[in-house]
């Protein structure tokens, strides 16, 4: 029951994983930033949830244009992140709770 609130976050992560496994390979390494925009999106949704992570992704995509300087742009960790990640990157309740 503790994982029910994490369902939207993990549904979004499933879509992102599917995108990264299929469509992302068609484009190749074209992102000027590290990590790539799709990897950034996964990290943002993992750390901050579906809504805020999606907003962070939109802001990142707005910064990613042909005239961008690029560089390292990691997701800032959530101060109160209290979950664990599975080996496949899904978010589960912490065993400490």
List the helices and strands and how they pair.
Elements: H1 7-21, H2 23-27, E1 33-34, H3 37-48, H4 50-63, E2 71-72, E3 83-85, E4 91-93
Strand content: 5-15%
Give the C-alpha Rg.
14 Å
How many helical stretches? 4
Distance between the termini: 13 Å
Q: Classify the secondary structure makeup into a structural class.
A: mainly alpha
Which overall shape is indicated by the principal axes computed on the Cα atoms? globular
Percent helix: 40-55%
* Residue runs with pLDDT of under 50 for 5 or more positions: none
Number of DSSP-assigned strands:
4
Mean pLDDT comes to 91
Q: Biggest sheet, open or closed, and with what strands and sense?
A: 2 strands, parallel
Secondary-structure element series: HHEHHEEE
Oligomer: single chain
- Strand neighbour order, sheet with most strands: 1-2
Pfam family, one: YidD
Protein name: Putative membrane protein insertion efficiency factor
Organism: Microbacterium mcarthurae
Family: Belongs to the UPF0161 family.
Can you walk through the features of this model?
This protein has 97 residues and is mainly alpha-helical. The chain has helices spanning 7-21, 23-27, 37-48, 50-63, and strands spanning 33-34, 71-72, 83-85, 91-93. The strands form two sheets. It has a two-stranded parallel sheet. The chain has a two-stranded antiparallel sheet with strand order 3-4. Strand 3 (83-85) and strand 4 (91-93) form a beta hairpin. It is globular and about 45 Å long. The two termini are 13 Å apart. The model has no long low-confidence stretch (mean pLDDT 91).
